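Suppose you are handed a protein chain with no further information: no name, no annotation, nothing but its sequence. What can you learn? This example shows the usual starting point.
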Amino acid sequence: MTLRPGDLLRRLPASALHFFVLGMALSVAFVMGNTVGTGLVLGDGGAERLPVLYVLFPVLSVPAAFALSALIDRGSQIRLFQLELGGCGAALLVLWVLLEAGLGLARDGIYLVTKVHEVLADILFWTVVMQYATSLELKRYATALGVGFALGGVIGGGFAALLVELVSPPALLFVCIALYALVALYLQAIGLSCSRSAAAGTTGTTNRGRASSHRSGPCPPSSGATPWPCGYALACC
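A reasonable first move is to predict its three-dimensional structure. Written in structure tokens, the prediction is:
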């Protein structure tokens, strides 16, 4: 059986497309951030600083990832993701001000912020997916989510290639910040959609449970899962 272009997306449930689009948008932001950070370092003739930055990247990202793991179960993962995006955008804005003030090290800071953000955002993306998807659904749609990331890389690369010919790398920082803001807003929409789906599933389960209790006693059979990504099996026992 031949899988034609577009068949993968058509086979996804509507709710799974939320995370497909989210992964694609994140990948676009990653490519744009890498373009800006690397362009600023190389544009300043700082190719000799890249090995040092390559060492600093894991030195900063590993503690940041451990700190994130300590916070990830203490509240809403979507809210934590939004805070991470907002913090990254604020850091880039501060570094842009310092860069305009003539601080050359701000270029290195921009490079490191965008790289560390990529690590943290990737962790948070899969954490949010696993929060709302069952293990079976994750296995079924992981390939599609990977395709979303790949497609976002292609779109981001073309977008960056177009913009670098029109605006300077420092000005591209505002494009990155705007992309982070759009991703944060889309996360809010995903959270609202999942809340509505979970509420609808709970209501349906309760109604079916009441009807079944008249026939089979106080423990009706387990109901089906709600639409993915809010696909927890809601059971009344």
